[in-house]
Every structure is written in structure tokens, then in C-alpha cells.
Amino acid sequence: MQKLATIFIAVLLAALMLSGCTEGGATSPSVEDTAQETATPAPVADEAAQETDPSTPEGEITVYTALEDEQVTEYLAVFNAQYPDVKVNIVRESTGVITARLLAEKDNPQADLIWGTAASSMMVLDDQGMLEPYTPAGVDRILPEFKSDKQPPTWVGIDAWETAFIVNTVKLEELGLSPSDIKSYEDLLRPELKGQIVMSNPNSSGTGFLTVAGLLQLKGKDTEAGWDYLNKLHENVDQYVHSGSKPAKMAAAGECALGVSFGYAGISQKSDGAPVEVIFPSEGSGWDLEANALMKKSEINPISHIFLDWAISDEAMALYKENYPIIATGGDGTYEGYDSDPVKQLIDNDFVWTAQNREAILEKWIKNYDGKSAAEE
Amino acid sequence: MPDRIKHRFSGVNLPQLTVMSCMLAAFTVVLVLPLFSLFSNAFLSKTGGFVGLANYARYFDTPSLSVSVWNTIDISLVSTVFSAVIGFLYAYALARTRIPFKSFFKYTALIPIFIPTIVHALGLVYLFGNQGILTGLGFHTELYGRFGIILSEIIFTFPQAFLMFYVALEYADGRLYEAADSMGVPPLAKFLRVALPEVKYTAVNVFFVCFTLAFTDFGAPKVIGGNYNVLATDIYKQVAGQFNMNMGAVVGTLLLIPAVLSFIVGRLMDSRNTGTISAKSTTLTIKKSRPRDAIFFTLCAFVTLSFLTLIASLFLGALTKYYPFDLSFTLKHFAFNMSTGGMGSYFNSLEMSLLTAVFGTVFVFIYAYMMEKTNGLGALRKYGKLLSVLPLALPGMVIGLSYIFFFNSPENPLNFIYGTVAILVLSNILHYFSVPFFTATGALKKLDREYESVSESMNIPRYKTLLLVSAPLSLPAILEIFMYYFVNSMVTVSAVVFLYSAHFKVASIAISHMEEAGDISQAAAMSILILLINVFVRLLYELIIRLMKKRARRKEAI
To answer: Omega into A41 within 30° of 0, i.e. cis?
Structure first.
């Protein structure tokens, strides 16, 4: 009698799983509709058949990235113009989430490769032995400080992003300041800016961390000077937020007078018409790279190599440069939104020191500022 | 008489035992094992060695971390009290007064769950932020921080409180009120001594549901929490900022405390709770009372108005060129970026939500029925009840990560569902299990146990009683559960963000990407599409209920 109910549940579970199976299959029509179509929907051959003709490679790869959606769409269109039969399946998340996901998937990686994700994350993944060394074609063009020091490299940088102050000109005026009054880190300590600054939290945002790490290096790595400065800065900070671009957005929306964020975040707000100016601190900016890497898997998809080669080609670099003017091949010419060569803006970043001290810096930062501000409520 | 029959059948009932075991086994696989694979990290060092409680000691030794525990309790308590009180009054207004525009009020009360929580926060910024409309009018508030979180949590938990109270109040036994009236009990006393005790069980549930939802919510603290640290943002910092899964697991286990507490309280309450609707119940007729209706109407209007303001800001953002700088009309924000999945992700969301709603509703209802209407099996039942409250306490991030650890493991025979829609559906069914379970239990509790006793004495199989008596009688609750699953699956972010695959993107994730990228207008546009489908499903639900009532009336007439 009640067996019926049991059977019913069994059928239910089976149906659920079955529906899962078909959804997951690459040939299911519903998936073809919904998956990101970057190529003409060609029937997918199995992996062995993929390398039949190297000139027109065919197949699909799964790419994890922290690049912005808009950029991914734009870049892939160019990639697919050259490789129309390669289907690139993208999982895009913010740097923190994509790295956490990669780490959690460690035992059975889903991604074939990582594209445009922070070098600081790459170092964590590399430490865990999750990256497969690979020398992409043309890697010699990448400046040495913009790729891993291993041979062959485990990760290769494509572009850099750097600390910048985004000021809301209207709000500044209300405070009796003009954008030209803000030039350096020291200017952030001006009494007029008390409670007017929004900065990203280094514990949840890569930009927050590169800013703090950059500052500590500028003030002398192992002295207390950097922390003295941060103590004073804390007096002027209204809040620490959990995303790198948010301070720029809040400045653009007038939610704060000054956001400590990164260059591109401010420049894109400005070109959208927000009343902001982007200021690079005269002492120099802390920075991090967006980098590519191959995942260590039992079977490496050969298409991954093709993609990684393309992803540092001149064609790709030119695309990156439109959004992030500091590209890993160095380069010259003009930079939209920048008055001078932005590469000179970057401090001499000691990645080894940063990686070694990461935990200690974050712990001290939490102790000094995170709890203090919360207790004040 | 019923007791004697019950006694005769209280021995081990094999088919019941089988069904119950199967359900519990399934639940164990989707809840306990994944959690175990994540939470075991709490007792390991970064390199994987066993360290006992050292991680906990470290957590509580860092005052700035442990202050989050108190902060979280603080905001959860305050917002729970507010949303429970407002939710009850609102539900009372709709179920027990004769105010006009009831169905309008019923829809608008649900607005907050029809749109992703990120949109609440954006709306609050439009209203109370430093550049907000109300701030401009002179309401100066410290939005970022405690105030903002509490406000946001009230908005977020209000619909749940309202719905639960509404379902409870709808199943009234008119005889109680007739009796009170014939004894000449004054209205206020009637409210306090009859209506309130009637929803005692629901009130406790509402309290725990709202408390735990606020306790584990991540969306609001992330967007407008300012420097006010809570446990959910702490997990995020540990996992996505410092990549420290061990400490993340420590914080995750702390978040389970309210669920365990509510389980204990639930156990204590259970023994005292008996059905209030017997087979002899009559429907309640609501008397006229102008002052009462005026008060309740004002309250409903106020709540509704504040929600409509949220929606208005959404439309303003989606349909203008660059809010607030250029207010000319445009539809360009509905052209989504390809890499967010575009419109495809919207249809994926529909598919995922429908599957979640169908399978979730069936599972929840049978589960609740097994818990509520079977006899014996004491230990199994206790285990089952504990399982049913746990999901409430799990932040989506914990579910997402534990599903990766468990289902992505190559040794797991269920590995094949990883990266498919099935794992998204499973995680949604689990993530939103508790509230539907309470709804179903609440509805079933009100049904007289005599139905079961009679069917047993007549040797009618239990599944027939379930299908032909209990289910039809609880149909409003069942539809409510379906709605709840559907709507929440449409807007959920925190769990699926770790589980969706490149082949299957969903709209709610697209919205959070758009928000992160600063494409607020696109985010608003997608939210409107989600809102529309949710309202559509709600209308469908109302239609079905109306048809059912009509049919029931026709039957009565015959």
C-alpha cells in the first residue's frame, strides 16, 4: 500500500537526476539555447578528435575569469572571429568568489584555464599546486615583473590595476576643497575629509589589500610608519566596503566625497558622465595583475593552449589596453584617462614580501580597524 | 475512541517506516553529508592537520571578530520584533477585518520577496543614502551600518512573517468567535484572548524564521552594512577575502546556533500543541467595525507605500538613460551583456525555479505529513525534525561551498549532478526548505487527527488519506509553498553563485554581476523582468484559489 508512496519518491528522485543528466549534456538542445554562445553551435566532438586540424581547431573549453562581463563579451567576440569553432564557456565571478570556488573545486577542477584573475589569487592557487606550468607563445614580450618567476611560468599577467582616488567634485566643493588639493596619500589626512572617505576592506577586496600592502611598502616595509599613517587615515574613513570598485561608484553617486579604489573603476564612472575626477597618488600606487593560468588536470584540453596563446597575443593586448591601460607587455602611446605613462605610477611591488606577510597584515588590520569601528556603533 | 484505535496501530508500521527512512536518507545526503565535508574544516589547520578547537579559540580571542556574534544577535532581534509585529497586524488586517483593497495589499506585501535583496539595498540607498530623496527632505539617518541592516532585514523578513501569520489566521475556527460573541467578550479582549493564542504556535515559528533569516542574511550587510560586522560578512571575508576555509567553517558552525535553539524550543512546544481545527469547524464571519478597519487600513497603506517606493526607484533606474543625471526614457538597459547569459539566463531561471517548486513542494508536503501525521518512530522523527530546521540557519554560501566539497568529489557516486541544473534545484530545495516545512506543518496541525484515525479504522491506506483528504484541505498552503519555492529560486544568489555552470547561468546571478560592474540600470531592468514573472505566478495562484472556492461553494449548494 504505502509502497506506492515509496515508489513515487524513488521515481521523483530518479526524475530529478535524469533531468540533471540531460541538462548537463552538451548536446541537449535546451543547453545549446541557454549556454553562452560564442561560436556557431557546432556539434561537439569528443576530446580526442579535437586536434585533427590545428589551423581550424574545434571544441569547447571552460574558462573561469574575474574580468568584467562587458569585457568578456567584447574580447570573446574577437577570439571567435579567429576561432569560430571553439566554444568558450565562461564562469565569471568577482576575484574573491572565483578564487574560493577554484579552491573548493580543487579535488576535481571544472575549469580548463583561468583568465584575467588577480595574480595574488594565482599565487594562492600555485601554492596549492593547482596550476600547470605552460609557456604561451610570445611570453617573452611580457615584462618579467608581470609573470611568475617559475620556468616555465605557472601564470602570466595581462594587465595591471592600481590604487587611485576617485573624488566627487561637487561634494569636494561643499567641503571647501578642489580636486587639485588632493595629490598624495598625505592629502587624505586633511581635516576637511573627516568621515568623507570610503575605502575597500583589505579582508574582502583585492583592491583594498593591494592599497594597504602598497602603502606599507611605500612607508618602509618593516617599520611602524605605514601603520601610523593608516591609524590617521582611519580617523577620516567613513566606511570600509567589501568590493574594490564600490568606493568609486559611491563617489560617483555622491555617497562619499572620496573613494579609495582603482583607476579603471573611476575612469569608467567618469566617462559615463558622473561628476568625478580620478587622482593617482603622487607617491605611487600599489597594484596587482590580472593574469592567466592553465589548471592542473588529469587531461589537459589542447584548446586551452590555443586560448592561452591568443590571450597574450598583440590582438588581445590591444583589447585589454582599452580598459586597463597598463598592459603586461609595457608599451607606449597615449593612455585614455591618464596624463602620463601609468606604468611609472606603479610602485616597485615586492610580491614575495607581500605574499609572506599577507596573513599578518590582514590580522593586524582587523585588530586595529575592523573591530574598532564596529565597537564604536 | 480515537485513542483506542491509535493504540492498536502504534506498533511498527513497515510501509511508514520505509517511506520515512527513504526521505531521511535523501535529506541526509543533501544536507548532513555535504555540511560534514565543509564543517570538518573547522577542526583542521590550513595544512590539513587536526587541531581540535584551536580555530574556535582563535576566533574568540580576536575581539574584533567575536564582536560580530553580538552584532548579529542584536540586528536579528530588533528586526525580528519589528517584522513579526507588523507582519501579524498586516495579516490580521487581511484575514480578520473588512478593509477594502485586500487583494491589492496582499500582492504588495510580497514585493520584497519578488525582487533580489540587492535591490532592497539599492532602493534604501536611493531613499536614505547621503544623496537620498528622504535625506534631501531632512531625514538624516546613518544608513550605512546597524540602522541600514535592520531596515533591510525588516523588509526582507516581513513577507515571511506576514505569510505565516496569514495562513494561520485564515484557518480560523468560527465557533470560538461565535462563543466569545455570545458571551459578550469586548473586541480588544477577543483579540488578546482568542486571536493571539490561536497563532501562538505560528508566532514562535515566525520569531525563529525571521530571526534566523536575519541572522544568516548576507546581501544587506554586504551592500549597506558599512563597518558593522556580522557573522555572514565574516564568512565572506574569511572565504573570499583570505581564502581561509577553516575559519570560514568555524563561523559557519556558529551560524547554526539559532537553528538548534529553535529545534529545542520546537520540541518543547510540540507536546503542548494540539489541533485547533476539528472536523466540526465552521468558517468565520467577520463583523463590521469602522474604527478597527480604519486603523488597519492606515497600517497596510503605510507598509504598501514604502514597498511601492522601492519599486518606483527600480523603474526609474531601468527606464531612464543615466539615473539621476539623465532622466530621458530608454529601453536600452534591457539589452543585456552576452556573458551574463542575457535573456537565456532569464529562461534558465524560470526552468530552475519551476523544477524547484514542483519537486520541492512534493517533497516538503510528504515530509511534513510523515512528521506530523504518523505514529511511533520516535527517534527517527526527532532526527527528521532537527533536519527540517537546519536549512534555515545555513547561509547560501555555506550550502554552496559544502555542495562543491561533497558533490564535486570524484569519489562521490552523485558526482554527475555537479554542474547541472539538478544541483541548483537540490540546493534551492534545501536552502528554502524550512519555511515551507513550517507552513505545511502549520496547515497539517490544524487538521483534525480524526481523519487519520477514521481512515485507519476503515483500513484505507494512508497515502489515500494524504492525497484525498489532507492535501486538498491544505491546498492553499501547498500553493503557498509552491509560490515560495518559485519566487525564492528566481531571486537567490548566495548558494547558486558557487554552483552554476558555464552552461547554465541564471538571472539572479546576472543581476549581482551587473550591480558589481556598476550597471545598476541593467540590474534594475532584469529585476523588473523577475518581478513581472513573480507577479504573474502570484496572479495565477489567486485565480486557482478563487476557482477552487467557487467549486467548493457550488458543492456546498448541492
So the answer is: no
Residues of A in contact with B370 (CB under 8 A): none
- Domains of chain B plus CATH, in order, are 10-557 (1.10.3720.10)
* CB pairs A-B closer than 8 Å: 255
pLDDT interval class at A338 (50, 70, 90): low
Instruction: Name the CATH topology of A40-160+289-323.
Output: D-Maltodextrin-Binding Protein; domain 2 (3.40.190)
Q: Which CA distances in Å does B390 have to B60, B216, B386? A: 24, 12, 6
Distance CA A279, CA A267 (A): 10
Picking from A4, A12, A35, the nearest residue to B359 by CB comes out as: A12
Return the ∠ at Cα B382 (arms to B395 and B422), rounded to 5°: 45
ipTM: 0.80
Residue linked to cell 551583456: B337
pTM of the model: 0.81
Placement of cell 457550488 in the chain: B554
- Identify whether the C-beta of residue B445 lies closer than 8 Å to the C-beta of residue B372: yes
Q: What is the DSSP string of A198-242?
A: EEE-TTT-HHHHHHHHHHHHHT-TTSSHHHHHHHHHHHHEEEEES
Nearest to B240 among A23, A97, A268 (CB): A97
Distance of alpha carbon A268 from alpha carbon B290, whole angstroms: 57
* B22/A6 CB distance under 8 A: yes
Residue A279 — very low, low, confident or very high, per pLDDT cuts 50/70/90?
Answer: very high
The whole-angstrom separation of Cα B494 and Cα B233 is: 12
Question: Could you tell me if A42 and A67 are in contact, meaning their C-beta atoms sit under 8 angstroms apart?
Answer: no
- Yes or no: domain A162-287+341-376 corresponds to CATH 1.25.40.10: no
pLDDT of A20 above 60 = no
The domains of chain A are located at 40-160+289-323, 162-287+341-376
Q: Which of A233-247, A362-376, B42-56, B72-86 has the highest mean pLDDT?
A: B72-86
Q: How many CA atoms lie within 13 A of B162 on its CB side?
A: 25
Within chain A, how many helices (H) and strands (E) appear?
14, 10
Reply yes or no on whether the pLDDT at A43 is more than 60: no
